[in-house]
Amino acid sequence: MGDLTFAENSHHFVAAEHSQAAAILISGDFSSKEKTLIRVPHVRIAMARILPVFFPPEPPPQGVDPSASIAPSAQVDPSAYIGPHCVVGSGVRVGARAKFMGGNHVGRDCHVGDHVWLFPNVVLYDRCRIGDRVTIHAGTVIGSDGYGYVLDEGCHRKIPQVGNVVIHADVEIGANAAIDRGALGSTIIGQGTKIDNLVHIAHNVVIGRHCLILGQVGFAGSTHVGDYCVVASQSGIAGHLKLGSQSIIGAKSGVMRDVPDKQTVLGIPAIPARQAKRQWIGIQQLPDMIKRLRDLEKQIALLSARIEE
């Protein structure tokens, strides 16, 4: 018996050979006289599949904690776990083997699917729909009011947000995220999408299937995101836009216009990646260009003085 590690490149492989591991997962053309090598097509995929075998999640307690409050009209599957200080509102349906870890508030008429895992202090506002195998990490709020106001006689009058949030199957949402309910319809998160910590998704946003939304990203209202998109950290997406399928938004980008399918954009405002990189290179060259320009101005001034003489 011994430890197992993995190596994606030659640098990691050298470190793995000098480690205490008995075997190394690899996918490249490596050889070793010291270690057992296990060749796989994709190292990271193999590790993702192996780790749960070595580190299985602890099964939660069964049943309902005595401190939980469950409305008489709620339907909770007998295999679900409702942890300490949870509140389950009227008309709520909770699926098989769902786990509410503690301090969760689930508003009236919410539907929570099978194998859903709510970490502590996750809040679901009324009428939200959570699909099967969804994981939502601590402190996240689903279904809070969208930011909708209209100027009425000098005051900002609130537009009631009467929609909901629909989260499809196999979605994972990080800690302290906020997904607002739709103004009239639904804010929708597509199947298999993964959302990082501290993400804000405004009302009526529709995010497609299998997208990756990284930390501190913000979506303004009514933006539509296609399938398999990547939005990197600290990017801001303006409202009523369309991000095409398989598009990539680089980190810290400010997206102000639609992005076509499969296009990568960068910068503020976001522009196609090749154009943005050329501009960045140009900015880096500005100090030398300014120096050359000043030297040219001095030479021209000297020539002008000679001509006048």
SSE layout:
Layout: E1 4-6, H1 10-17, E2 23-26, E3 36-39, H2 43-54, E4 63-64, E5 69-70, E6 75-76, E7 81-82, E8 87-88, E9 93-94, E10 99-100, E11 105-106, E12 111-112, E13 117-118, E14 123-124, E15 129-130, E16 135-136, E17 141-144, E18 149-152, E19 155-158, E20 164-167, E21 172-173, E22 178-180, E23 186-189, E24 194-195, E25 200-201, E26 206-207, E27 212-213, E28 218-219, E29 224-225, E30 230-231, E31 236-237, E32 242-243, E33 248-249, E34 254-255, E35 264-266, E36 271-272, H3 273-308
Parallel strand pairs: 1-2, 2-3, 4-7, 5-8, 6-9, 7-10, 8-11, 9-12, 10-13, 11-14, 12-15, 13-16, 14-17, 15-20, 16-21, 17-22, 20-23, 21-24, 22-25, 23-26, 24-27, 25-28, 26-29, 27-30, 28-31, 29-32, 30-33, 31-34, 33-35
Antiparallel strand pairs: 18-19, 35-36
Structure, described:
With 309 residues, this protein is α/β, with parallel strands linked by helices. It has 3 domains: 51 residues, no CATH class; 209 residues, UDP N-Acetylglucosamine Acyltransferase, domain 1, CATH 2.160.10.10; 36 residues. 18% of the residues lie in helices and 29% in strands. The chain has 3 helices and 36 strands. The strands form 5 sheets. A 12-stranded mixed beta sheet has the order 4-7-10-13-16-21-24-27-30-33-35-36, covered by helices on one side. A 10-stranded parallel beta sheet has the order 5-8-11-14-17-22-25-28-31-34, with no helix packed on it. A 9-stranded parallel beta sheet has the order 6-9-12-15-20-23-26-29-32, with no helix packed on it. It is flat, with a radius of gyration of 27 Å. The mean pLDDT is 95.
